[in-house]
Structures are given as C-alpha cells and as structure tokens.
Amino acid sequence: MADKLHVDIVTVEGRRFKGDADFVVAPGSEGELGVLPRHIPLLTPLAPGSVKVRNDGEEQFFFVSGGFLEVRPDQVTVLADSAERADDIDEARAEEARRRAESLLQQKLSDADQAAATTALARAEARLRLAELRRRRRV
Amino acid sequence: MQAVAASKLRRVQIRAEAARPYADRMAEVLTEVASRTTGSPHPFLTERPIKKRLLILVTADRGLAGGLNVNAIRVALTYIRQGEETVLDTIGRKGRDYFRRLGVPIIAEVSQTGDRPELKDILPAVTVARDEYLKGNVDQVALVHTHFASISRLVPSVSILIPVQVPERKEGLRVGYLYEPEPEEVLARLLPRYVEAQVYAAVLDNLASFYAAQTVAMRNATDNAGELIDDLTMLRNKVRQATITKELSEIVGGAEALAAG
Asked: How much is the ipTM here?
C-alpha cells in the first residue's frame, strides 16, 4: 500500500477532520505549501486561507482563519484558530464581513486597528474564494 | 432540575473532551519549540520580580450549585491575601459580583457565556490579561477555576498562567522540526494561543463542575424534600388519629351523660 498521511484538523473547540490523505495543501504564513507523505518535520504558522486534503482523487476543502501546521513524515496536524468545512461556509456572512473590513480600511485608523481590519479582510476574502471554488467545481 | 443538570453535565463533558486533542497537540508542539529557541527568551517565558499580579477568576453565572462559587471565591481570596497587590479579571457573574462588593479592582469581566461558550466569548478577558502583562503593569497572571475531578469531587484550584510553564517533555518525543520562519517567531505566535487554550479549557472544566454541583444540590434538595414529606405525612396521620380519638371519646362521654340523665 502506498504511503498515506494521517491528517488531523483540530481547533480549540473540537476536531474538524480526521482521516488519511495522499496530499495536503495549506496556506503557510511564508507561502502556500504542499505536503506529500514522508515530508521532513516542519512547523509553520498559517495564514487565513483554505486547506486542501486529497485522498484517492477526492478533494476536501477547509477554511482556516490562522493557526499552525505541524508536519511529520506520516502525519499532518492543523492547529487551527477556527476551521470550517467548505460546505459550511456562510457566503452571505463572509460577504458582509468583507464589506465591513473594507469600509473600516477607508477610515483613518491607528496601526493596530489597521492591522486588525486588514486581517479581517484577508479572512473574508479567503472564505469567499473557497466558496466560489466550491461552486465552480459543482457545476 | 436534577435530571436537567445531569444531562447538561453530560453535554458539557463531551465539549470538554472535544477540546482535548487541540490542547494536547499544542502542549507537545510548545515543549518542542521552547527547547529549540535560543537567544533572548520571549517575555511570556521570563520570570520577573513580582510587584503586582492579575488573577483570572472563573466562576458560574448562576447559583443553586451548593458551595461551588463560594469555594472558588475563597481560594481566590487566599491568593489575593497571600502576596502582592492583585487586580481581577473575572469570567462569570458570581465572582464579579462578590469582588465588586468587596472593592477589589476588576479590570475586565466576561459573563453570560452560556452553556456553549466559544473561544471568542472569553477572548476579551484573556487579551486584557495578556496586554497587562506585556505592558509590564502586572508581573504574574494566575487562574482560579473549579476542576471537575468527579461528580462528587470538585476541586477549586489556582494555576500560574503567565509566565507560561512549559510542559515537561515526554521521553522520545524530540522531532527536530524545520521552522518557517525562525523558531523564535513561531514561539511568539504559539504562546498567546497556548494561554487562550488553557483559559478556554478552564472555562469548560468550570462549567462541568457547575452542572455537577447543581446535580448534587438538586439531588440533595429532592432527598430532603422526600424526608420532609415523610415526616409531615407521619405528623398528619398522628394528628388525625388524635383528633378522631378525642371526638370519639367526647361522643361516648356525651352519650353516657345523656343516658345517666
């Protein structure tokens, strides 16, 4: 049998996914990265974006708002700040959040608020991109 | 009420259990990273002389839970009295109300987080504590909550949150990660989340204790009411018996008086 990765996506509120995979793609803070079985142990923070889990040709997507990716040769753990399965993403809510963040950014803000709004915007956009991707695949 | 509390207890226990994988992995990763970083240690890991302290006190929002809140408050009082000046950060209404009456400064409070608290509900309280520490306003952050050991053993306990106590390494766990970016940077992002996860776990633990205490309190109330009902039933029967006997003897007495007259 070919090598598999044991994938675990956990948040502080509970486990979101557990299963095997051939290939995992995650939004590392230094850039998107793909993980195959027998990868070198790696630890990196995550940026808001989508985690792709591929197993036997089937792909699943999860939105993560940040967190950490821990890679071992046969194991991938996503310690997510929050994780949603692509199917659960509420597009209307994401759109609303994006508008809010954009209008915030147009006002004059302190550095900290500016950073918070930029992060919020990145989160909302990542959610929407993922929802969009899902829609295209279904059609 | 007893059945309600018992079923809620079960649900909270499931939630507390669900939070475990994250907490366990987080602890493992933190141990690993902390052992790898060199150079100037992160402020969260540095002990400094204590001039002022901050206590995060977790209590329930509601009562009818036996000695649960009182016991936690007592532990908090002991902590406050034995040492340097302390400011409070309360999660839960009972602790907040008590210390407000006492006049202990409360710099942040979160309450009404309900039966399904989410991390974002308690985050404000944790953020305030973290900032106070980073600004140097306080030199230690401690946490008091009631630990659920079993339904009949609820233990109010104090633990030190910041400086962070890095968990001991278990044998043979050394992984030797590649870090991206530098380990120091990764550690700086890990530590706040570790603290948040600990407070969140304490809130769930406390909630489990609350429902356990409520279950026990309600069971005691039911038992007491049962005993009271038995006693009162006995009393009623005795009174009734006495009244009947008295009336009978009066009738007999009256009849005899008539016959004699």
From this structure: 0.71
